Amino acid sequence: MAKVGSLVLCVCLLIGLAGCGSQQKLPSYQENKKMVLDMLKTDDGKKVFQDMLKDREFKQALVLDDEAVRKTLIQTLTTEQGQKLWQKMLQDPDFSEQLAKTMESENEKLLKQMMKDPGYQGMMLDILKTPELQQQYLGLLRTKPFRQQIDKSIAELMASPLFKKQLSDAIVDTLKKEQEKQQ
Predict the structure, then answer these.
(1) Of 14, 37, 62, at which residue does a domain stop?
(2) Can you list the residues of the chain whose pLDDT is less than 70?
(3) pLDDT value at position 172?
(4) The Spore germination GerD central core domain covers which part of the protein (predicted)?
């Protein structure tokens, strides 16, 4: 912060010195602005900014609080220009991926809460019961790739040692029950 103060003090001194010692008129706002911008574009000006960005106190002063972020997001989401900006940003795959990663755990928590809500459950059931959606499911079930996947899943299940044991146990139990009925 001392560096920022030093920079501001230097600018003020230069402006003051420009006006002192002569009876000339004070520089206009545009002239002052041009002079400050010219100073900032110099190597020394750039170095001062680089040093300021490395300073821990300055970085902490730049960190936005939650309320400021919240207000900014609400403002950008509700305006037409903000919505266009978000649409453009979401078309960038890298941005979309990073945003999804940061929101993943919160979305999961929200979805779990919603799944416990009877109103949400009812809405989901209503959606799943719509005739159009049921027809789409039936259409998917009749496709060759789906049937191939089912065949593959059944073959994997039948090759499983656990399934083989459960199947043989079920057959033995059924045979025992049949023998008991016959006796």
Answers:
(1) 62
(2) 1-24, 62-65
(3) 94
(4) 62-173
Which stretches of 48-156 are assigned E, i.e. beta strand? none
Q: How many CA atoms lie within 13 A of 9 on its CB side?
A: 6
How many whole angstroms separate alpha carbon 111 and alpha carbon 103? 12
Q: How far apart are CA 65 and CA 58, in angstroms?
A: 15
Predicted model pTM: 0.32
Q: What is the pLDDT of residue 150?
A: 92
SS3 content of the chain, % helix, strand, coil (to 5): 85, 0, 15
* Residue-range definition of the domain harbouring residue 163: 139-182
Question: How far apart are the C-alpha atoms of 132 and 151, rounded to whole Å?
Answer: 27
Does 31 reside within a domain? yes
**Which residue is listed with tokens 């545009």?**
30
Q: Tell me the C-alpha distance between 76 and 93, whole Å.
A: 20
